[in-house]
Amino acid sequence: METIRGKRLSLLIKEEDIKKRVKELGREVERDFATSKELIVVGLLKGAFIFMADLVREIKLPLKIDFLWVSSYGQSMESSGNIKIVKDIDVDIEGREVLLVDDILDTGLTLKEIYEFLRIRNPSKLKTCVLLDKKERRKVDFNADYVGFEVPNLFLVGYGLDWGELGRNLPGVYAVED
Ligand SMILES: O=P(O)(O)OC[C@H]1O[C@H](OP(=O)(O)OP(=O)(O)O)[C@H](O)[C@@H]1O
Ligand SMILES: Nc1nc2[nH]cnc2c(=O)[nH]1
């Protein structure tokens, strides 16, 4: 039984199921970006680092990677919708085809703001991919183009997602039990 700080974790998505779904997402991205000469894959740190590492290895197209480090002000389990860019991407995306990758879409506040932050730089194509979508929590009108799994309204850890910075290294996705 996995625990973090004495709280029990219950397995929601097994490592093998993530692996299978990431492969499928890779095929979907390949199909939609088939004519791309050089795809730019942008991950949001920190949460996206594991998903992005697995996803890019399933996209058999010429691509470059970059990361945008964003943090939301405040330490609660809830996104505050007050986003700070800790580190911008280094690559110029004007006229380029871009795939924005994150671990989870929850209220939508983070991805909606970052999508707009990149869109105004005029990429020729900008799509979004998330492993997890907690649809019922959405506060703004935003959906990703590629979604791994729709998940219930539970606080999740593992596969890049943290609870107070712990748990990112768990190979599956777990719900923190009450
Ligand atoms: O849809 P939202 O409600 O905005 O929530 C989603 C965001 O929250 C998490 O990031 P977090 O701020 O926990 O930082 P992290 O990436 O370092 O884990 C996650 O990685 C998403 O970026
Ligand atoms: N770790 C973690 N971060 C989140 N950010 C938004 N939703 C979640 C969640 O369920 N778990």
**DSSP, total strands:** 10
Overall geometry comes to globular
Compute the average pLDDT: 94
What's the helical proportion of residues?
10-25%
* CATH class label: Alpha Beta
Structural class: alpha/beta
| H/E element sequence | EEHEHEEEHEEEE
Distance between the termini: 15 Å
- Oligomerization category of the chains in this entry: single chain
Query: If helices are DSSP runs of H or I spanning 4 or more residues, what is the number of helices?
Result: 3
Number of domains: 1
Trace the largest sheet across and list its strands: 5-4-3-6-7-8
Strand content is 25-35%
What is the CATH third-level topology name? Rossmann fold
Q: List all distinct small molecules, including ions and cofactors, that are bound in this structure.
A: 1-O-pyrophosphono-5-O-phosphono-alpha-D-ribofuranose, guanine
Low-confidence spans:
none
Q: Roughly how many Å is the radius of gyration?
A: 16 Å
What can be said about the biggest beta sheet? 6 strands, mixed
CATH architecture: 3-Layer(aba) Sandwich
